């Protein structure tokens, strides 16, 4: 009986260990014995920087900006709305930097789920993947439901759509069905099944139409502004009528207008040159979105005083107030194209996340099948489209739209934590299938023979193996016999081990400090004494963690982690910690009703993982070996094959 043998205690320990087991980062190496078996799981390498920019911009710029400009200016920012968009864009850029590094190092389908599985563990990765499934399903349905009203406006009014496309109320059930929304979802699903390059080209055309509409708003609005003297800025209350606090509150609201660029990372496995193109695609997409948001907001708040803006149709009303009523048609076209592009961006990532989870054994293998002709996960795409289309047809998902933000913010937070782990405590053990036992024994034998030599390599002095079934260690430690080498090896290993422990505990306490600080700052119902105490303790943890991580060296093993030569996130640890702080604050402020709904979904996910994912995981019988010997084991396996 092994260390995790039978009994309730063994089952409990095994269950906990399954939550923290981590998979191997994709690299140039692959299992030769499984290459043929996995050939039908390969996606098409077809995307370049322009395709990625089209995906990023199309997924990010939705119709919400055509409404946010009015509501945020009226209620929070006033004429300072442009600065609110700038601050929100900078906050989104923090997450974009983290995504860019991990996407270039680990260019595989799955996005934040994939990164969390490699850096944090299986349990957290499952929750992130499960939350993203909810996000993309509800997000796609909500976007589809918003298209039919805009199409109706484009054709003359709410009753202008044909009967088979118009909304109808089912008598007795008080359910409003939307055939137009369902049809659009099914059309986009069919397009995504044709191929990644073809669907991206179409999304590029639709996104271009949206961008042209926003450029028209900027140019025509700028002309009117210079002609009329910018009445929206000539106000006695000044540029900050609600103060700096109002501007920051507006920034926290418009931040959600930047959600969508993470869709670029989900296509990492389909990019021709991921180390170069993924960071560029993410960076260019976010820069274009932020620039367009700022230009449109600067023009609109200058045309009309913020307090006189129409909260529902701020842009059309601003032009109408200057006698250009026909501009409403261009604005409506922009809103329709924005929604269509966002719908494509919502349905694109989910099949790839399902595929990544199925590859890892956490979901049925049905979702991992890739069509050999189109080289896309057709089965997962069809299931996603059917589910999103059904929801869009029967349900008004407006009340569930807040749940979309939870998945994204959780993903942003976990990606930032993964960057800290990658830099300071990168995984030093690699899981290998038990089929590698012969190769592992061969490497162990060679190391044992080399240990008798006086010029023994300190790095190979001791090769421990950690398995989740420790009954039979497959690679024994090799003792060091030379006294001086042994002493140096012990000191070196002790130093490395202590540094990793300090860094690991510091990252954990920093995250705890962030949670305490943001919770105390957000929950106003707490007594002031408790709030200030929690803020003080949380702030102390946060500041101490930042100082400690800034003072200790980052792990040298980070240079060998994943694919080298890609983008490197700057200002570590400051930038990831700031990203964690911002996203945690936004998460906590989503509201209790949203969290209650999300908790039910996550609880369902825990049950699915406990009864299926945990026992079917590809790491269930994995053997963990030191990362320094993986190359040697692969070579030995290839020579023995």
UniProtKB/TrEMBL annotation:
Superkingdom of this protein's organism: Eukaryota
GO MF, one annotated term: amino acid transmembrane transporter activity
Pfam family, one: AA_permease_C
Subcellular localization(s) per the UniProt record: Membrane
Membrane topology: Multi-pass membrane protein
GO cellular component, one term: membrane
Keyword tRNA-binding listed: no
Residues annotated as transmembrane: 49-69, 81-100, 112-133, 175-196, 208-226, 246-268, 280-306, 326-348, 376-394, 400-422, 502-524, 530-552, 564-588, 594-612
Domain Cationic amino acid transporter C-terminal: 567-617
Swiss-Prot/TrEMBL keywords: Membrane, Transmembrane, Transmembrane helix, Transport
Family: Belongs to the amino acid-polyamine-organocation (APC) superfamily. Cationic amino acid transporter (CAT) (TC 2.A.3.3) family.
UniProt name for this protein: Cationic amino acid transporter 2, vacuolar
């Amino acid at each position: 009986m092994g260390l995790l043998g039978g009994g309730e205690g063994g089952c409990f320990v095994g269950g906990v260990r399954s939550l923290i087991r981590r998979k191997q980062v994709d690299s140039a190496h692959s299992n030769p014995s499984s290459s043929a078996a996995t050939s039908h799981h390969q996606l098409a390498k077809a995307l370049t920087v322009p395709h990625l920019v089209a995906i990023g911009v199309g997924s990010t710029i939705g119709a919400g900006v055509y409404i946010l400009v009015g509501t945020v200016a009226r209620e929070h920012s006033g004429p300072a709305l442009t600065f609110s968009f700038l601050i929100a864009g900078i906050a989104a850029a923090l997450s974009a930097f983290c995504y860019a590094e991990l996407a270039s190092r680990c260019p595989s389908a799955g996005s934040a789920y994939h990164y969390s599985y490699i850096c944090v563990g299986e349990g957290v990765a499952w929750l992130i993947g499960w939350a993203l499934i909810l996000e993309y399903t509800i997000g796609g349905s909500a976007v589809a439901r918003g298209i039919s009203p805009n199409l109706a406006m484009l054709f003359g009014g709410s009753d202008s759509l044909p009967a088979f496309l118009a909304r109808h109320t089912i008598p007795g059930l008080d359910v409003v069905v939307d055939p137009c929304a369902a049809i659009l979802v099914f059309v986009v699903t069919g397009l995504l099944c044709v191929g990644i390059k073809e669907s991206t080209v179409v999304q590029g055309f639709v996104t271009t139409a949206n961008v042209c509409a926003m450029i028209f708003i900027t140019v025509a609005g700028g002309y009117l502004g210079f002609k009329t003297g910018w009445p929206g800025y000539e106000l006695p209350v000044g540029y900050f009528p609600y103060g700096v606090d109002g501007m920051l509150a507006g920034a926290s609201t418009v931040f959600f207008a930047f959600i969508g660029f993470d869709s670029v990372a989900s296509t990492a496995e389909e990019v021709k040159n991921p180390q170069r193109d993924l960071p560029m695609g993410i960076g260019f997409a976010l820069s274009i979105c932020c620039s367009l948001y700022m230009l449109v907001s600067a023009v609109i708040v200058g045309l009309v005083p913020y307090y006189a803006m129409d909260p529902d149709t701020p842009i059309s009303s601003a032009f109408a107030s200057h006698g250009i009523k026909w501009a409403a048609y261009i604005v409506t076209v922009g809103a329709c194209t924005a929604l269509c592009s966002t719908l494509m961006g919502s349905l694109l990532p989910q099949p790839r996340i399902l595929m990544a989870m199925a590859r890892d054994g956490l979901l049925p293998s049905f979702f991992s099948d890739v069509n050999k002709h189109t080289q896309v996960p057709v089965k997962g795409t069809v299931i996603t489209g059917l589910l999103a289309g059904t929801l869009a047809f029967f349900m008004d998902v407006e009340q569930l739209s807040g749940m979309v933000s939870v998945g994204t913010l959780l993903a942003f937070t976990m990606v930032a934590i993964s960057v800290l782990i990658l830099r300071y405590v990168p995984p030093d053990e690699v899981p290998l299938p038990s089929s590698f036992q012969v190769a592992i024994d061969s490497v162990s034998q060679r190391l044992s023979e080399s240990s008798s030599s006086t010029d023994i390599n300190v790095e190979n002095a001791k090769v421990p193996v950690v398995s989740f079934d420790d009954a039979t260690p497959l690679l024994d430690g090799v003792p060091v016999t030379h006294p001086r080498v042994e002493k140096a090896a012990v000191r070196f290993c002790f130093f490395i081990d202590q540094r990793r422990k300090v860094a690991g505990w510091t990252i954990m306490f920093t995250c705890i400090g962030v949670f305490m600080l943001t919770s105390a700052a957000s929950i106003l119902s707490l007594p002031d004494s408790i709030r200030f105490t929690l803020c003080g303790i949380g702030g102390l943890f946060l500041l101490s963690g930042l100082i400690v991580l800034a003072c200790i060296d980052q792990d040298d093993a980070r240079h060998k982690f994943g694919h080298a030569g890609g983008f490197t996130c700057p200002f570590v640890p400051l930038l990831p910690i700031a990203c964690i702080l911002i996203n945690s604050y936004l998460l906590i402020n989503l509201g209790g009703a949203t969290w209650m709904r999300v908790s039910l979904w996550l609880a369902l996910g825990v049950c699915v993982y406990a009864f299926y994912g945990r026992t079917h995981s590809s790491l269930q019988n994995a053997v963990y070996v030191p990362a320094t010997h993986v190359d040697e084991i692969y070579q030995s396996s290839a020579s023995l094959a």
